[in-house]
Amino acid sequence: MAGDPNQLKKQTENISNKVTDYAGQTANQAAIKVSEITDSAQSSAKQIQAQMRNLDETTIPDAFHRVPKYISPRVHSWLDFAVSTYFLGLGVWFAMSGRGRAATAAFINGGMVAGVSLLTDYDGDGRKPISFKMHGTLDAVQAATAALGPVFHGFADEPEAKYFWGQATNEVGLIATTDWDAGMPESQRLNAA
Q: What range does the domain containing 2 cover?
């Protein structure tokens, strides 16, 4: 039973028109959603920028001011030495094992900690350029560098990543429990509430 060719043509045109209308409506709805998302993202970006203007060297260390402080500046300096040695040792071990990406990330972290430590004024006497609280903020940067190192260097799915993630977690605990005010000049210490 053959159908009427004119009828088939009309049905095809009808379906084609419906699909075209649906596609147009969907495209309009998508454009509206994209516009809403863009507006929301721009608004969020402006809020973040406004909050970023309030950041300074004390923001990260002072964020943990209610956490008990067990680590003095002197102990913190020894822990920095240990972290530098840890990462530089990992770098050598990874390099000798042919794991170049992990070695690179380890050397970057070890060098970062060693360099910042050498320039930190742990005593609060002003003889070195990095204040102890700025060191705390840079410790947060180093923790992020350690945590993201496996991702950025392409070995997040390999066993070597655990050494970086473990140290990043440890670093956050170190930041929280260090007495950052003890390493600052008296005039710059956070007043206890």
A: 1-54
